[in-house]
Amino acid sequence: MKTPYYMRRRTFLTGVAATATATAAQSAAPMLGPSMSLHRRFQLGSFEITTILSGTVTVNNDPQSIFGLNVSEDEFKRVCAENAIPDDKFQMFYTPTVINTGAELILFDTGQNPTGTVAALESAGYSADQVDKVVLTHFHGDHIGGISENDVRTFENAEYVCGLAEYEDWDFSGNDTFEEKVRPLEDEIVMLEDGEDIVTGVTAMAAHGHTPGHMGYMIESEG
Description:
Elements: H1 5-26, E1 39-44, E2 47-52, E3 55-59, H2 64-67, H3 73-82, E4 90-94, E5 97-100, E6 105-108, H4 114-123, E7 133-136, H5 141-144, E8 148-149, E9 152-153, E10 159-163, H6 164-170, H7 176-181, E11 190-192, E12 197-199, E13 202-206, E14 215-219
């Protein structure tokens, strides 16, 4: 016996309604925004270099006071508008760098906290206990924050390195983050001056300005 037309139509409409309900429920997931890898890797001679993204934050502040002190407010806003960049906030990215020399694993800076830095390290195939040296370019919180948490060191097997001038400048600063993160390393941290090597091919270069003792590092392998 054939199903009456009105029954078939009612069944069809019920199915459509159920499908629509399911589709609506599935589409309720939030937009996640652009995605990015937590690491990028490339070769430099015999060194393997990996940059890791340990965190990012939007700062709702005055970006001109950081990035545009040498131009007028109008000029700063004009350049921002031309490049589709907001003039009232900016995005900060924390990107420590890892160098695998083949003999040692060297981490440059530790990010803002251990959690983000360790997660990014692990995404790149490394673990915190594999790090042989931690090099601190300077002592701002987003570079030293990942050294430890609750007095527990993140990189328990690592030797620490910094610039002598940077340490001397912060030594009597009274900065809470310095006292918590760096001060416990005082008796063991290796302090370098301009032109000294961490290992062959990794040389300290004075880059004072961002902080009074800020250090950059020249990386050279196989010419």
